[in-house]
Amino acid sequence: MSEESTFWITKTLQELTCNEWESLCDGCAKCCTLKIEDVDDGTIYDTNVVCRYLNLESCQCQCYDERSQRVPDCITLTKDNLSSINFMPPSCSYRLILEGKPLPKWHHLISHIQEKIHDDGHSVKGKVISETEADELEYHLTGDIIN
Q1: Which pairing describes strands 129-130 and 44-50: parallel, antiparallel, or unpaired?
Q2: Are 61 and 75 in contact (CB under 8 A)?
Q3: CA 113 to chain centre
Q4: In the chain, N or C: fewer CB atoms in 10 Å?
């Protein structure tokens, strides 16, 4: 493999180009699930409810370039804020690289199959509902603790 084809191994996160940074995203859309934070202890709980702009079939944001304007509390993950964001799931490619861990076999940069993440069940596809269909979030807890 060439250095270009393994950029996530040969470069630090700070050295990645914009395109390389974007291509690290595995497309799981777990970061798009709505979360509930316990105000007493800071524990963050996951739900099976996703942002209204997430396409439930493709697990892609329908307004990616405008997401922060349309959803003010949508956090744009960057090289500078990654280490301070505590709600990224343990399987998140950005988090894995930050922690010095390898990408999983199903990641499209390893498998060269974009849909493998969905086919292998590592995304939210088929497991979530849109916030437009949800009632109170407390009724949609998955049992997963993020941090």
Answers
A1: parallel
A2: no
A3: 18
A4: N
- In the chain, the DSSP E strands lie at 33-37, 44-50, 54-55, 60-61, 129-130, 141-145
Burial (CB count within 10 angstroms: exposed 0-12, middle 13-18, buried 19+), residue 35? middle
Q: Which two tokens stand for residue 24?
A: 């690290």
Going 42 to 44 to 45 to 51, the CA torsion angle's sign is positive
Q: Using one digit for the tens of pLDDT, what is the confidence trace for 43-86?
A: 889 999 999 999 999 999 999 999 999 999 898 999 999 999 88
CB 99 within 8 A of CB 14: no
Alpha-carbon gap, residue 67 to 77, rounded angstroms: 12
